[in-house]
Write a structure and sequence with these properties.
Layout (H helix, E strand, L loop, with lengths): L4 E4 L35 E4 L2 H13 L10 H11 L5 H4 L5 H12 L7 H8 L3 H12 L3 H19 L4 H7 L5 H12 L3 H8 L1
Antiparallel strand pairs: 1-2
Helix pairs in contact: 1-2, 4-5, 4-7
Length: 201
C-alpha cells in the first residue's frame, strides 16, 4: 500500500470527510493530552516519508493481531514522526484562554460523574454566562458539548479496547445509560455502540 499524504486534524477543528470519489484511508485517533488540545485548529497535510510508509505497512500487516502485541511501539513511532512534521505555528498560535483550559481539564478529569455548568464555571473562576461566552468565542461550542465529546471519545476507546458491557461503559463515562449513549453516538458519530465495536475488531 502506498500512502501519499498524511492529514493531521487537531481537536476542535470542524471538517467533513465527504468525497466525490472512492479513496483508501488508514487513520489513527490519538490523544496527546489537554496541552495538545490547545493546538491551533486546522487541517495540516504533508507528504509521507519512506519511514512513515514502512511503519504504516508494518501496522497493516499486523491487522487484527495488533491486540496480541505487548505494546504498540510502531503506532507510537508513527504518531511521533507525524506530529513532528507539524509547523511551529500550530503551537505558536495556541489561543485558548487559560480559564477555558482549566475548565476543559476539569471536565476531562471528571468524565464519570454528573457535572453541571455551574461546577465547571466555578472551577474555572467564571460565571456560567462568562463560561459559555468564552467557550463559544474560543471553541465555537458550548462547554457541555465539549464535555459530551470527551465522554464519547472515552466511551469509544473503551468499546475498542475492553470487553465491558455497553451499559457499564455508558455509566463509567457519565453517559447515564446505554440508551442515552446510543442516542448520542448516533446523533454525533453516526453509528451505534454495537456497530462501532464490531467495526473496531
Amino acid at each position: 500500500m502506498q500512502l501519499a499524504q498524511v492529514y493531521l486534524i487537531p481537536p476542535h477543528t470542524t471538517f467533513s470527510t465527504t468525497t466525490s470519489g472512492p479513496f483508501t484511508k488508514w487513520y489513527a485517533h490519538f490523544n496527546l493530552g489537554p496541552t495538545a488540545d490547545r493546538a491551533a485548529p486546522g487541517i495540516y497535510c504533508f507528504p509521507t516519508t519512506a519511514h512513515m510508509r514502512s511503519l504504516l505497512n508494518g501496522l497493516i500487516k499486523l491487522g487484527k493481531r495488533q491486540q496480541d502485541v505487548r505494546f504498540p511501539w510502531s503506532a507510537i513511532q508513527l504518531v511521533v514522526e507525524v506530529v513532528q512534521e507539524l509547523p511551529d505555528s500550530v503551537w505558536d498560535k495556541q489561543r485558548l484562554d487559560a480559564r477555558v483550559q482549566r475548565a476543559m481539564e476539569f471536565m476531562h478529569q471528571h468524565l464519570g460523574i454528573k457535572l453541571t455548568a455551574e461546577q465547571v464555571a466555578r472551577h474555572a473562576g467564571l460565571s456560567v454566562r462568562n463560561l459559555n461566552h468564552l467557550f463559544q468565542q474560543e471553541l465555537q461550542q458550548p462547554p457541555m458539548r465539549v464535555l459530551l465529546d470527551y465522554r464519547l471519545d472515552e466511551a469509544c476507546r473503551q468499546l475498542r479496547h475492553t470487553e465491558d458491557s455497553i451499559e457499564t461503559i455508558a455509566e463509567e463515562c457519565g453517559l447515564v445509560n446505554r440508551h442515552y449513549f446510543s442516542r448520542m453516538l448516533r446523533q454525533y458519530r453516526n453509528t451505534s455502540p454495537a456497530a462501532y465495536r464490531e467495526e473496531s475488531l
